[in-house]
Amino acid sequence: MEKYKRDGVIGKERNSLRQIHKYRRQGSSGGSVVVKRFMLQPKLDALSTRDEEASADPEETGVPIKTLRQISLLKVMQHENIVRLVEMNYEDGDSLVRLVFEYADMDLRNFLEEYAAKASDQKLVKKLLCQLLRGVAHFHSIGAAHGALNPKNVLIDIGNENLKILNIAMDADALYTAPELLLGSTESSPAADMFAVGCIFAEMVNRRPLFQGKAANINNIFNLLGTPTEENWPGKLSEVFPNLEPHGLDLISKLLCLDPSKRIKACAALKHDYFKDLILLR
Amino acid sequence: MQFNVMQEYDPIDRPPLGEDEYLHTYLNSEPLSMAAEGYAGDAHGMEWREKALIVIFTYSKCKNNFDPVVPYLAMSYFDRYMSRRNPVPALMRCRLHDLELLAICCLTLAWKIRYRYFKVRHFKAIQRSLPYIAPQKFWTMELCILQGLDWKLCTVTPFSFLQYFGNPMFGYSSHGFHRTINET
């Protein structure tokens, strides 16, 4: 890590107390990166105080299955709207691997706060949402789900208005969690990602989280969207987004659909009429 | 889950993409999932391949379940690893046993990428004729293969294209079939 200097905390790792730090590249190349460590070999010493991820199953033989599946997925993820894996280094006699990902100027939460005027441009909201959906569609196309989408792991490059999804497991934020997960489903899914996209879209439009409070709960969601009879749905959405164009309102209602099996998919969302006046940057 | 949640790797039943854009992606990345060119013409390599094929076929069952995708994937890992001139680590008493361990580890890697709840101990319990392999040797061989394959286990196989049969793009492409099969 000689060529990187620690440059602030960006979040906390999922199911862990370990913080995720941002690093700045030393020298002329500049730029920021995020580092994720993976254990490749279970440590015999269970009391090891090292902060790397421990292997889940000490009886496991060979390379831990979670590590193997996560890294092999990262290797096939090559998309302009997903952060790029730039380096992979081995340490401690190959028992530890360090993955270095690119970072962008800031996360979406900071962008909405620090660039309020720029962020209120509804054309930019449309452009950013389109990029977010393209990144999410790529996740889903390779048989994966992100599982923790929220404005802290959606990154923005201010200059070129590019959006990239950070796919390091940070703590999932309850404010962006789909109702089926709040009701007890334990498996994240592409549909749950789409609900989170709906919440992020809503936050970009109104520049405040859709579900307020210490933690979103099922009451907050039903209060807004109606109870799951679907008859009174979409409930109060048009009141919450008075300035959103009708196509945008239709898209947000489809993203926030309570029934995960009826919720719009990323590929379909990209073809929604909301984007018909957007010239895609390819 | 420590990281983004993954569904099972399934090269057949991919999410319905329906976009030519994704077909292009598959076509572009398929060569990376293939054995290197000329592999099938290497007589020594083919002799080793035949031995590995027998090992993979012999031990390809786990929990009374035979999944044809697993030995297919294992064989594709073996072909990619060997065709790119990666060394076979000398971990066992003789080279034949090294080769056998290499083939078995290709198989366990295929099981691991295919089923998230796979356990090597379940596999050993079913395959009672499997020779004893020290955990450290097992780990070393698996890591060696992963490094040789650049950790790219979610490979594009001909199965990935099944949903596109009938697409006119296939008329203009020379891809879509396994190189080793083509060359043999």
Automatic annotation (TrEMBL), chain A:
Belongs to the protein kinase superfamily. CMGC Ser/Thr protein kinase family. CDC2/CDKX subfamily. This is cyclin-dependent kinase. Keywords: ATP-binding, Cell cycle, Cell division, Kinase, Mitosis, Nucleotide-binding, Phosphoprotein, Serine/threonine-protein kinase, Transferase. InterPro entries: CDK, Kinase-like_dom_sf, Prot_kinase_dom. One of its GO terms (cellular component) is nucleus. GO terms for molecular function: ATP binding; cyclin binding; cyclin-dependent protein serine/threonine kinase activity. Residues 4-275 form the Protein kinase domain. It comes from the Eukaryota. Its EC number is 2.7.11.22. Pfam families: Pkinase (PF00069). It catalyses: L-threonyl-[protein] + ATP = O-phospho-L-threonyl-[protein] + ADP + H(+); L-seryl-[protein] + ATP = O-phospho-L-seryl-[protein] + ADP + H(+). GO terms for biological process: cell division; G1/S transition of mitotic cell cycle; regulation of G2/M transition of mitotic cell cycle; regulation of gene expression; regulation of meiotic cell cycle; signal transduction.
